[in-house]
Amino acid sequence: MRRITHFIYNQKAAPYIFVLPFVLTFLVFFVYPVFTTIRMSFQEILPGMITNVGLKNYQRLLGDRIFRTAVSNSFEYMFWTVLILIPMPLALAYMLNSRSMAAPGLFKGILFLPILTSVVVAGTIFRLIFGELPGSFMNTVRAFFGLAPIKWLRQEGTGMAALVIMCCWRWTGVNILYYLAALKNIPPEMYESAEIDGANAWQKFRHISVPLVKPTIIYVLTISIYGGLAMFTESYMLWAGNNSPRNIGLTIVGYLYRQGWEQNRMGFASAVGLVLLVFASIINFIQLRLTGVLGKEGD
Amino acid sequence: MAVPSAKRVRRGPRLVLLVFFVCLSVVVLLPFFAILLASFKPAEELIRYGLNLRLDWHLMSFDNYKYLFTGITPEGQHLPHDYLLWFRNSVLLTVMQTALTLLTSAWVAYGFAMYRFKGRNVIFSCVLVILMIPFEILMLPMYSQASAMGLLDSFWGIILPFMAHASTIFFFRQYLLSIPKEIVDAGRVDGASEYGIFFRLILPIMKPAFSAMAILVGMNSWNNFLWPMLVLRSGKKYVLSIGLNTLLTPYGNNYDILIAGACFSVIPLLILFSFTQKYFIEGMTMGSVKG
What we know:
The complex is a heterodimer of chains A (about 300) and B (about 290).
Chain A: H1 2-8, H2 14-40, E1 43-46, E2 49-52, H3 56-62, H4 65-85, H5 87-96, H6 104-112, H7 119-129, H8 137-144, H9 156-183, H10 188-196, H11 201-212, H12 214-230, H13 233-238, H14 252-262, H15 266-291
Helix pairs in contact in A: 2-15, 4-5, 4-9, 4-12, 4-14, 5-9, 6-9, 12-15, 14-15
Chain B: H1 11-39, H2 43-49, H3 63-70, H4 83-114, H5 120-132, H6 135-148, H7 155-159, H8 166-177, H9 182-189, H10 194-205, H11 207-223, H12 226-231, H13 240-246, H14 255-285
Helix pairs in contact in B: 1-14, 3-14, 4-8, 4-11, 4-13, 5-8, 8-11, 9-10, 11-14
């Protein structure tokens, strides 16, 4: 016992004791389960009976039409959110940061409010906003323009639109904060000297702000890509469960959830999970390379 | 707020910007307004006519909220439900999870920030890897592991896998790197143990960092949905997000508790946000401007 106490209080051992909780979590909840999942992806798992099926799960996955729908939905969602949630919040942050802006703190606060809602609450609100009754909010907007009411969440295009709009509603304010933090780091002298050279607002934005907030743009891009790839609960809540008509809201993670939890095919679900992990790892690697985190770990 | 030199502010652009942001704010606040309005109307109204912005004063009342807190329906029936239990569970889980996550993550971050040791960079790369991978991608292996360890249907199952929390560790490490190492050396000279230094000298200095992260971790814990949904089984342990979700059955209408309950569940965060906006923002943006 005294030996152990002595070891723990040794200055050489201390750093390891400090990082131990992380190392344990990493091994127990990441490394080991990932290996189990790899093994499970080659198995068929029924209660009390596990059979090795080789590559069968993966073969099935390749030919699975519903999986392809899920992948295409996830990537379509990712595409739209990246297209909107990168430039729009940047432009808004630039305006909020401008000297002509009145009460920037107030507007920043208002735009941030939506992220305080949980997915459950936001999903409930937007499911009702995009309701199919003639009196549902979005249909009254259509009526205002003289258009007939539609079933928003039953058609492919409008269903995806609802999903993307909900995401933008929740995340625009957060991305604005990221950009504002970066914009505030730009010394005002840079804009001043550009003004002396006769630059207008757009030129200042294009040639000073954008290049200097590039690291933040890459950061926001990365989290948007991951967020798009991993999106599930938004769709789950918008359609009140994992079943959207003709799977128009089914995502890769939704498919994983359906196979693993709803249909209890853990082996097949593991294969889905690994494909997803491979997608994510590729993105992770590219991102670490781009931002140079892997390169500058010298000290 | 002045970024370019504040020599003259022209009226025109100022007005255009203001009008634009007022319109944008109205659009952003509309969903809140719509749901708040609905929470004061009878549920049948919502089912029959959909969510709208009509202000029908004669229809609006506090009946839904009365039912939420007393279990007495507008018709005077006593029809018990579990909303207050879920609320209590959410408070309990959020407090437990926030306290444990902050303490564990600060402990780990201190190791990364204040010592040089063999394997540090390798282990820290693992933090960066976990930092980026969204939870949804790992939920299947994590679930099998939690299940194998008998952690299902308990708050520990929700808390334990995220106690050494990558982004919180990252934030604390950044913060600690800015603290002069002399403090630690001085502590050693005074004869304090390595852990005594952490608890007595470092934790008090970390107070601002704790405030920023407490709000962020607390908000995520309060709003967390997917992992608790996978872990929790028995209705008595449900937290708000899970409980509200169970109200969405295809059979029967629970819109009275659902809408009023959803509104009320946002209120603690709204209050917190209005008082601590600075810390919120600090915590949220820390990851994006990394050194």
